[in-house]
Structure formats: C-alpha cells, structure tokens
Amino acid sequence: MMRALGWLAALGLAAGLVMGFGVAPRELTQGNVQRIMYVHVPSVWVAYLAFAVAFVASIAYLGRRAAPADRLAHAAAEVGTLFLGITIATGSIWGKPTWGTWWTWDARLTSVSVVFVMYVGYLLLRGMVDDPERGARFAAVLGIIAALNIPLVHFSVYWWRTLHQPPSLMKPGGATMPPVILAALLVNFAALALVGAYFVARRARLLRREAELLA
Amino acid sequence: MIYARRAWAVVWKDLLVERRSKETLNALAFFSLLLLFVFQFALGPDRERLAGVLPGLLWLGFVLAGLLGLGRTFVAERENDCWEGLLLAPGDKSAIYVGKLAGNLLLMLAVEAMLLVLFAVFFNLDLAGVLPALGLVVVLGTLGLAAVGTLFAAMTANLRARELLFPVLLLPVQVPVLLATVKATEAVLAGEPLGAVAHWLQLLAAADVVYVTAGLLTFDFVLEG
Prior knowledge:
- The complex is a heterodimer of chains A (215) and B (225).
- By secondary structure, chain A is mostly helical.
- Chain A is built from six helices and no strands.
- The model of chain B has no long low-confidence stretch (mean pLDDT 90).
- Chain A binds chain B through residues 62, 114, 117-118, 121, 124-125, 128-130, 134, 137-138, 140-142, 144-146, 148-149, 152-153, 155-157, 159-160, and chain B through 148, 151, 155, 159-161, 165, 168-169, 172-173, 175-176, 179-180, 183, 199-200, 203, 206-207, 210-211, 214, 218, 221-222, 224-225.
C-alpha cells in the first residue's frame, strides 16, 4: 500500500517534470526562470494542506487521546514545514533574477516565513519534551493555536505591506493563465501532493516504530 | 458565579504574593528603566530618528518585559510544588486560566504604564492628548500577548529549556498582534483618529477572541503537567 503510493508519487514527479520542462512553453518575459513556479506554487499548497491535516489531527488527539492521531499531526507538521521551506527557497531563487533580490519583506514572503518559524517552533517543542504523552498533548495545543493563527498572520502582514504578484490561480474571476501552463501546474501539484502524502505515511510509520521500540 | 469566584481566588492569591514579595514588579520596573538606557544608547540623541521608530521601540519594550513577566506566571506553583494544588482545584480548570490571565493582564498593564511614563519623560513626549486612544490599543494588544503567554507559560513551566522555549514559541505567534499594535500606535501618536486604524483594531479584537477562546478550551490539557 505504502509502496504503491511511493511509486505513484515517483510517477507523478516524472510526469510533472515532463509537463514543466517539455510540454509547457518557455515564458516570454521571464524565460526559463518561470518554470520554478511548477515547484514553488504546488509546494505552498501542499504545505498548507499538511498544516490543515496537522490541525485536524491535533484536535482529534486531544479529543480521543489516540496515539496515531498524534503521530499523524507530527508527521504532517514536519512535512508541511519541509514544503514551506522548499517554497521559500525556490521563491528566493526565482526572486534573484526576476526582482533582483534574494529576499524582500513583501507581504506574502513575510507571512509565509512567519508561518514557517511558527512551525519550526512547533518542531522544537516536539524535540524538547521528554515524556512522549506530555509532548503529544503540548504539541496538539500548539498545533491548534498555530493553525488558527495562520489567517491572522496572513491578514496582518497583507495590510502591513504588499508587492508580490497577485495570486495567479486562486482569485475571483478564475485563472488567467494559458491552459497548458495551468495543466502543468496542476500535474505538479498532484505529484507533490502524492510525495507529501508518501512522506507523511513513512514518517508516521517511523514514529510508530520508534514508540514501539521505546515501549 | 462560582466560576468567577474560582478565577478570583487565583488572582487574589497571585496579587497577595506579589504585594508581599514585590518580586516581579520591582524587577520589571528596573528592567524597563534599563531598556530606556539601551534604546537611547542604540539610537543616539537624534530626536528626529527617534520619533520615527518610537512605536516600534515602545512595543519592543512591552514585549521584552512581557517575555520576562509572563514567563514567570507559574514559577510559584512549580518551585513550591503547588502544581498538584492547581490540578486538585475543583470544577472547570479554565477558571485557573482566567485567573492567571487576569493577573498577568494587571501586571503587564502596570509595567506598560510605567514604561509609558518613562518614555514620556526620557524622550520628552506629550502623551496627554492621545492617552485614551493609546490606552485602547495597549489594552487590546496586551490581552492578546497575555492570552497566549499565559497558556505557553503553563506549557513550558515544567520543561528543561523553558527560558529558551517560551520566547521561541511566543514570538512567532504574536506577529499579528505586534504588527497591528505598532501600526495602530504609530497612527495614534501621529494624532490620527481611531477610525483611521479601525481595521487594525478589528484584527486585534479578532486575535484576542481567538487566543482567549483557544486558551480556555485547551488549558485543561496543558495543566495536566
């Protein structure tokens, strides 16, 4: 089951590469640099999806005190942080040739990086509590607060300043990009979502085995 | 009614301890004075530059004092082995959260009032005209800071690296509150009406509601120790 998911993810990644480098055309103004978008944008979607999973799993853990929910929350938060890191790194690489700078305190860069440090804090807390049951409880509380905080971070930073490209897909009036590019984007999203799901499944299993070993 | 009395018991106990020991408030008052020195040394005597960064400095002071003050919320319970006492308290445990939060709010507001006076004296500010508007921003911001701070203080109280972990967890979560308060303070100090910063005040109010609600609902799980 997990192996099948892994192969499916690998297949998806291959298809994503073909779509991103082969099928999708070279963008006129930005050139090949624009192809980073096929990793950059799906990564942030997968990251927020993973945080949503971690949020629900955290609530489930506090309600039922079931260890699998805790392991799912832990694994999802870790994978979400990883994908958010990929988003920030690829955005930075894209920003250098396009905006002329690695980093600027624009609204979406800032809000994503704030969410990133919030979840790094979550993982730090995970690492610093010795008693696993207590660690699970505290992490669940923090996972809930962090997820509830994401909209607040988003709005406050958005009002604080904004300069980023407006979102290309999720905006009123529908997508404006050519269908080929949209298709490449969605294929890559599916691929990265599969990769994320595979990572979460593997990580949760590793956590279960660690717990069994220590028990 | 009995809920309020339980919360009040916690507030009263903490206030009494603080009145007799004066530990936290004295140290924080002195710390605030030191902060003023540090800010002055870091920025030099140039008044123009100072005026531009004043709202940020003010909230930096509040947050630094808050990190020290709020982090000590459960020190008495931990050091005197009274954690079980809290656990054994009858009824809804969130009453303890309300009590601790109210105590922290009082403590923070006292320290912030002190810092405001110090700022007014050292930097020659005339705050009298803007005091009501500034007060509203300060109370809304402090409530958000204290709501999360109280919860996280309980969480980190029994951990090895609590002094380290408490700020590391609290600061990223407080980014919306900090942005909103600094922006609103900036506008208020510039003499703008509160209507101009209504969206920031709404954000602060929303943050306060979210944080206090989350604190009330999850405190029980944190208190178990």
